[in-house]
Write a structure and sequence with these properties.
Shape of chain A: globular
Strand order of the largest sheet of chain A: 2-1-3-4
Helix content of chain A: 40-55%
Strand content of chain A: 15-25%
Largest sheet of chain A: 4 strands, parallel
Oligomer: heterodimer
Radius of gyration of chain B: 22 Å
Structural class of chain A: alpha/beta
Number of domains of chain B: 3
Bound molecules: iron/sulfur cluster, FE2/S2 (inorganic) cluster
Helix content of chain B: 25-40%
CATH architecture of the largest domain in chain B: 3-Layer(aba) Sandwich
Number of strands of chain B: 9
Largest interface: A-B, 35 and 47 residues
CATH class of the largest domain in chain B: Alpha Beta
Strand order of the largest sheet of chain B: 2-1-3-5-9
Structural class of chain B: alpha/beta
Largest sheet of chain B: 5 strands, parallel
Number of helices of chain B: 14
């Protein structure tokens, strides 16, 4: 059985979510692996959300917002961009593979682009395999006790 | 009510938290007058077996400092939990993992290689490394197991309260102890004591204006202007993502906050909030320019999670076997064949 990744998508209300809606009304087919969470703006996506998603079992996280210059709140997507770059640098130090966390600009009229991004990302994360969640400390302790006992 | 029965213990720690208790200065006499100290390895000679002989819940309050990295730390955490009515995680290591938890960026072997092999001062031609047991003529000697991952006290046993800080400021420690000694009611279990609900920025007296940064400095690279927010000057300061209570003592000494009081109330992951705060002061819109500025932040994990890596959502860097699916498969088949 091929591995089906779980991808959490944070889509901004004004562009990307509307773009995803358009993909639906236009009946464009795309991978069912994305679990969409609507946020008011990509600038609302706290890095905590991304880490929490990964920690809770997501294999990839997509953040999507309006194209630069088009944010409903003027600057929100620039905040998202800056956080994303810094987060990416830190995630690579954590050993999280490039491609698990992505930021994309998708406008309200780009239903096809939304579908393409989701397909692309699903294929990429599928190739990476599951995001092996950190073993919870309790599990680790038992594993360590077990290895000691053996 | 008789005298308060107090115990203090150090697990994976530097000794600074014990110093913080001694830093109560003359108040230590008040403490000695109000409390019987049943166990305190740094100051009094009471053995582990003496503690083991205590009845359950014999100790009223135990201040446990240090993280949990070895089987000895783990054993003492369980022991002191069962012998104490109130178990307090005292100091950043016990609360969040602290500096020892930065070892979660590698594993046991990585730590051992660094300490017993690669450090410049190490002279160890036979590459001798610690083992849990070794046979000598007189019998078998043992050492505790050293774990791959450092944990907080609360990830090990049930904890009643947390007193943050590396180390906690003595005034706050005393305020909490005095409160307990006077028998005043304590807040609900799980509360952070000896600190505020807000951030270090909130109690920092420096002047804050707009923060727009195109260059970050490490503290040794710049002499900060007095009176002006350090972050506005490009010095990475954890104030916006750190719980107050220390009265901004580092900033008052012209050093940026490193985050030792941990996440403010309601914040799940201190490093993510800190990263977010730093990203939002970067004055750039083009990806290349953003990357150029970000490059100046050396060691993001060590900066953003300096004291809270064990407590964070990620908890540690991913181990090799968690990363590469092919390797994992191989390992599993090898293990299955055995
Ligand atoms: S960022 Fe640091 S220096 Fe600036 S106000 Fe906050 S605590 Fe003070
Ligand atoms: S200023 Fe920051 S690092 Fe310094 S004692 Fe306070 S919380 Fe800790
Ligand atoms: S509203 Fe779409 S990114 Fe801000």
């Amino acid at each position: 059985m091929t591995f089906e990744p779980k991808i959490v998508g944070f889509l901004c209300n004004w562009c990307s979510y509307t773009g995803a809606d358009l993909a639906g009304t236009a009946r464009i087919k795309y991978a069912p692996n994305i679990h969409v969470i609507r946020v008011m703006c990509s600038g609302r996506v706290d890095p905590t959300f991304v880490l929490k998603a990964l920690e809770s079992g997501a294999d990839g996280v997509l953040i999507a917002g309006c194209h630069p210059g088009d944010c409903h709140y003027q600057e929100g997507n620039y905040s998202a961009l800056r956080r994303y770059h810094l987060l990416k640098k830190m995630l690579s130090d954590f050993g999280v593979e490039e491609g698990r966390v992505r930021l994309e600009w998708i406008s309200a009229s780009e239903g096809d682009r939304f579908a393409q991004v989701v397909n692309d990302m699903t294929a990429q994360v599928r190739a990476l395999g599951p995001f092996h969640r950190q073993k919870a400390p309790a599990e680790q302790a038992t594993a360590e006790t077990a290895s000691k006992a053996s | 009510m008789g005298k308060l029965k107090l115990a203090l213990y150090w697990a994976a720690s530097c000794g600074g938290c014990d110093m913080a208790i001694l830093e109560l200065y003359e108040k230590i006499l008040d403490l000695a007058a109000a409390a019987d100290i049943l166990f305190w390895p740094v100051a009094i000679d009471v053995k582990y077996k003496d503690v083991e002989a205590f009845p359950d819940k014999h100790i009223d309050v135990c201040l446990f400092n240090g993280a949990v990295r070895t089987s000895e730390n783990e054993h003492m955490a369980h022991l002191l939990r069962s012998k104490s009515k109130i178990l307090v995680a005292y100091g950043a290591c016990s609360h969040l993992g602290g500096i020892p938890a930065l070892a979660n960026m590698t594993n046991k072997q990585g730590v051992f290689d660094c300490v017993y092999k690669y450090t410049a001062s190490t002279d160890n031609p036979n590459n001798v490394q610690p083992k849990t047991t070794v046979k000598v003529d007189e019998g078998t000697l043992t050492l505790p197991e050293f774990y791959d991952t450092v944990k907080t006290l609360a990830q090990t046993v049930d904890v009643d309260y947390f007193i943050p800080g590396c180390s906690p400021v003595p005034e706050q420690t005393w305020a909490v102890l005095e409160h307990i000694i006077q028998g005043k009611p304590l807040p609900p279990k799980g509360a952070v004591l000896g600190a505020t609900q807000k951030t270090v920025c909130d109690e920092c007296k420096l002047e804050k204006e707009e923060k727009k940064i195109t260059k970050f400095y490490r503290p040794f690279e710049i002499i900060p202007e007095p009176k002006k927010c350090l972050l506005e000057q490009g010095i990475i300061c954890a104030g916006p993502a750190t719980r107050g209570g220390c009265d901004a003592r580092c900033i008052r000494a012209n050093m940026p906050c490193r985050g030792c009081y941990g996440p403010p109330e309601g914040v799940m992951d201190q490093g993510a909030k800190f990263l977010s705060a730093i990203a939002s002061v970067i004055d750039a819109k083009e990806p290349e320019e953003i990357d150029r500025i970000i490059k100046q932040i050396v060691d993001p994990i060590g900066t953003f999670y300096r004291f809270s890596l064990a407590h964070s959502l990620m908890k540690r860097t991913r181990m090799a076997e968690e990363k590469a699916p092919e390797e994992t498969k191989q390992r599993n088949t090898v293990a299955a064949r055995r």
